[in-house]
Amino acid sequence: MTTVLSIETSCDETAVAIVTNRKVCSSVIASQIPIHTQYGGVVPEVASRQHLLIITELIDRVIKEANLDWSAIDGIAATVAPGLVGALMIGMSAAKTLAILHDKPFVGVHHLEGHIYASYLSAPELEPPFLCLLVSGGHTSLIHVKDCGVYTELGATRDDAAGEAFDKVARLLDLGYPGGPKIDRLAAQGNPTLYPLPEGNISLPGGGFHPYDSSFSGVKTAVLRLVQKLQAEGRELPVADIAASFQHSVAKSLTKRAIACATDYGLETIVIGGGVAANRGLRETLATAASQRGLKVLFPPLEYCTDNAAMIGCAAAEHLSRGHVSPLDLGVQSRLSIMDVMSLYRTGEVG
Q1: When comparing pLDDT for 75 and 160, which is higher?
Q2: 129 preceded by a cis bond (ω within 30 of 0)
Q3: pLDDT digits over 195-204, tens only?
């Protein structure tokens, strides 16, 4: 059994958790959404400042809630890439300090690998190989999960990530930030087929379309033109119908690519990760399509779809149990491919 205290500060949530293998002992998240809403999006300097103000309090809370002392902790982990550099620095510095103070190994974790591991928290029996559809505000990818730290990206967005498109469309509809949850709620009241919108196909040089890559800038532009057209006609915007049509287009696009990819690679399980994994339209569309084709789909619990430290701790515990330890001079990176996860570790240092 490997117990890890983990910290996540890659963007606008300050999160700390204690995880034993694939079981959450305690987890706390302090969201900064109320602070950033007034700016219409995340302000990096403000995010870093908020992490700094609250992180010590959260560390104390998880220790008390888990009813553990430091002798029960096997390692200290933090997200080190990708993310906002200043924000990542706060979490990493806190984790390294705790590692030195309590003589524990330090484990740097790739944020996207954390999202992959979120589903292990509710399905501890899950084992590779499987396909992960990772959909968040900054990333949309189809990842072949072969083993801990062994990943191949099979498909990706060529422009906006799905979550980013949700936020931009929400601004077009004057819904505010963050856009994803607001569009999801409105879509339940609208007609998803009222306005046919593009699915974001990527053309291939020799003809046809890329089976796994996607684009979301086109659907965003289509919504913009639709809004402009309706406003020019002096009509009141049917916001719920536009939201439902947009969400339907994105969910259909993601589902088509995930199903095709899993089928082509002979993968029987599709795991969903990232903030957009909480979207009800995507959950229903993908679950239905997968069931029709005999595929299994795993969605993480809603509390582990958005950024959290429990998923980081789960990934860290797996790495630590395999002897993967990060050097104390490891730095943070704003970008790092999921396929370069093992560059974060020195192997064989822990039995």
Answers
A1: 75
A2: yes
A3: 999 988 888 8
∠ CA 60-66-67, nearest 5°, is 90
As a three-state string, the secondary structure of 28-61 is EEEECHHHHHCCCCCCHHHHHHHHHHHHHHHHHH
In degrees rounded to 5, what are phi and psi of residue 222? -65, -40
How far apart CA 337 and CA 149 sit, in angstroms, is: 11
Query: 280-292 vs 179-187: helix axis angle to the nearest 10?
Result: 70
Q: What is d(CA 37, CA 44) in angstroms, rounded to the nearest whole number? A: 13
- The one-letter amino acid at 90: I
Q: Burial letters for 324-339: b for 16+ Cβ neighbours within 10 Å, e otherwise?
A: bbbeeebebbeebebe
Q: Which of 98, 3, 91, 97 is nearest to 55 (CA)?
A: 91
User: Which strands sit side by side in the sheet containing 130-135, from one edge to the other?
Assistant: 150-156, 140-147, 130-135, 269-273, 296-298
Q: Is residue 18 a contact partner of residue 68, using CB atoms and an 8 Å limit?
A: yes
Half-sphere exposure of 340 (CA within 13 A, CB side): 8
Written as one string, the DSSP assignment of 56-90 is HHHHHHHHHHHT--GGG--EEEEEEESS-HHHHHH
Two structure tokens written together for 190: 């609208």
If you average pLDDT over residues 308-329, what whole number do you get? 98
